[in-house]
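USER: If only I could read C-alpha cells as easily as an amino acid sequence. It would mean a lot if you studied the pair and described how this chain folds. Here is the record:
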Amino acid sequence: MDAMSAISNNAVNLGKVHPEVYQAMIQFNQQADSAFKASGLDPLVAELIKIRVSQLNGCAFCLRMHQRDAIKLGESMDRLAVVAAWWESQYFSEVEQAALALAEEITQLPVPQHKSWNTGVLSDEQMSAISWLAIVMNGWNRIAIQSHYPVAP
C-alpha cells in the first residue's frame, strides 16, 4: 500500500461525522467575514490572506478555491504567483503587506517579538478583522486537510 492509499484509508470527513460542529464553523466564518467587510479593507485583501494562510498550512483544497475567488475579484496572475514571497516583491501595497504579515504571525504562532508589520497603516478594527479571518482560515485548512478533501484536475 502506498502512502496516499494509507492516508485516504484513514481519512474522516469531519463535517459529515460531526455536522453540528461544522455548522458552528460556518457561522464563525460568516462572523469573521462580516467583521472583515465592516473594517473597510478591500475584499481582495481577504482572498490574499486566505491564500497565504493556506500556503503556509499546505491546504491544496483552500488554495485552489481562494485563488479562483481572487481571480474573480480581478486579481492578476503575477500577484498570485508571488504571494508566497510577497515581501520580496513590489506588487503589494503597505496595507496588503501588513495584512499578510499579521496573518503569517497568527498562522505560525512565533515566540512573542516586536511586531514589525505594525507600521500604523492598519486600524485596531482592521487588525482585529484580519486576525479573525486568519484564525478562521487556519481552522478551515485543518478541516480540509484532516478530511482529505479531494483536489483533482
Summary: The chain has eight helices and no strands. The two ends are 23 Å apart (CA to CA). The first helix runs from residue 3 to 9.
